[in-house]
ABC-type spermidine/putrescine transport system permease subunit I (Rhodobacter viridis), 293 residues
Amino acid sequence: MSASPIRRWARSEAASGWFMVSPTLIYAMLLLAAPLATIFAYSFFKDGYLVVIHEFTTQNYIDAWSDPIFRTILFRSVLVSALVTLVTVLLAFPIAYFISFVVPASNKSRWLFLITIPFWTSYLIRVFQWKVILNFNGVINSTLQGLGIIDSPLQMLNSIGAIAITLAHAYAPFAILPIFVSLEKIDRSLLEAGQDLGESKLMTFWRVTLPLAMPGVIGAVMIVFIPTIGDYVTPELIGGGKLPMVANMIQKDMLKIDNKPLGAAVAVSAMFVVAAVSLLFLFLNRRFLKVGK
């Protein structure tokens, strides 16, 4: 008697693969997909007095996008995240290049170990450290005044620059590591072949090294841009709440105003904006690779 289709499938390699990934898949569904689906559903509900009315409406999105404050905060969030991403990647690439091409193979693990040291402390503690450094009576102002360079302390907190510096420092290791991995995968003989054909070191870098390292650069951009646009702690502590970003607005709508459907609509809108900006970057990167060939 032949085995049933279910038993044959249970013994197949496909079933073994599904059984192996099922714990991770269930974990992702419960902790990632389910909350996103809940937020998406809430964005189409109505807000009532101390309750959420489960009736379909698109008014939350209309209210969000017609609010000039939301548009301003969303634009600021994208601007700050783009600035942080640009600064972080521009600083991370030389460091990753130095570790990959200059540091001896026996010492690379030590350098990577040093890069991970900031992860030993809490993200919140690192933000507070930057608040101490940039404070009115902080390390920088005290040093500059002690050297006689300035007469009165500089106002560095509560600014976009301070927020960008703090976020760039926090996410720098996330940018260095993927770029380093891409640089390590480059066949060094390709670089030697380019120089043997008469290309300068600069052109070899531009036409060989950089295109081959772009997967790591793309990964670094995505890893930095996506979480920074939704960062809540840094604008609140370093910006003093005077320069809120979209996460701060979501928190206000959800908790202080107690309008969860509107907060959900703001969150979903921000997610679509992040997706649109990410797709635009991927498109521009493909164009860059075509031009570089």
Observations:
- The beta strands are 46-47, 52-53.
- The chain has two domains: 1-42, 60-292.
